[in-house]
Amino acid sequence: MNANSSRHNEAITSYSHAPGRTVTAGGVTYAYRELGPRGGIPVVFLVHLAATLDNWDPRVVDPIAERHHVIAFDNRGVGASTGAVPDTIESMADDAFAFITALGFSTVDILGFSLGGMIAQALVIEHPDLVRRLILTGTGPAGGADIDKVVGTTYYDILRATFTRKDPKEFLFFNRDGAGKRAARAFIERLDERTLDRDAKITVKAFRTQLKAIKRWGRSAPADLLAVTQPTFIANGDNDRMVPTALSDDMHRRIAGSQLCIYPNSGHGAIFQYHREFVSAAIQFLDS
């Protein structure tokens, strides 16, 4: 295991300027970026379907990194990370564990969005001692109703985006009303703020394997969320077409003591549309 560059003392708090790093574990070299002050418990960000390091909204990352050590990484076989994408969520969670422990951490906070939230649930059930606090956004539990329909929704919206020459995330993450369209355009623009050292895009094969894993997760036996004893904050929009909003309510009922925030007039990407409100709540949760 080796980190390819020494950790510097000065804290970078801009995700757009966070240097690219790598660490090798179990024969896989993981690409990652870290920012924020060192020394405390880091917040590890687990990203969504088809996403690379370049898909995190700096308006979500940067405010959290002002007071917390933030780490984001490419899953195995995605972006600049080596290896092949696993076809189960549980294997992706094993990779997350390998990555985190390769960096030398025994306790972390987790923020997972969409696919990342599924990986987070598998991780916390398999390695409960690793996770102190858990933030689950735009996601659903194993065996959750209609999660397996993500595949059809995704391909449909990719087609819509192709015909209109827009980014598929504008359809998948946001409502198609005035507020949603404005939020979508602003979000896509923010993702382009990093101009140097951009990540490699996900391959079609890797994307399809992730979709297969999500479908399998949706059709698997329901997870025992009673086993999740960590403080948990759940957030989503009230109109999530990808991972139905009802599943956020479901997780909230089944994870004892969890907090739930459903943002109005928003979809799968509610935490990006309401980034100020979400970040404020997330920081309060992490610091409480």
TrEMBL record:
This is Alpha/beta fold hydrolase. Pfam families: Abhydrolase_1. Transmembrane segments: none annotated. Keywords: Hydrolase. The keyword Hydrolase applies. The keyword Acyltransferase does not apply. Residues 42-272 form the AB hydrolase-1 domain. PANTHER family: AB HYDROLASE-1 DOMAIN-CONTAINING PROTEIN, HYDROLASE, ALPHA/BETA FOLD FAMILY PROTEIN. One of its GO terms (molecular function) is hydrolase activity.
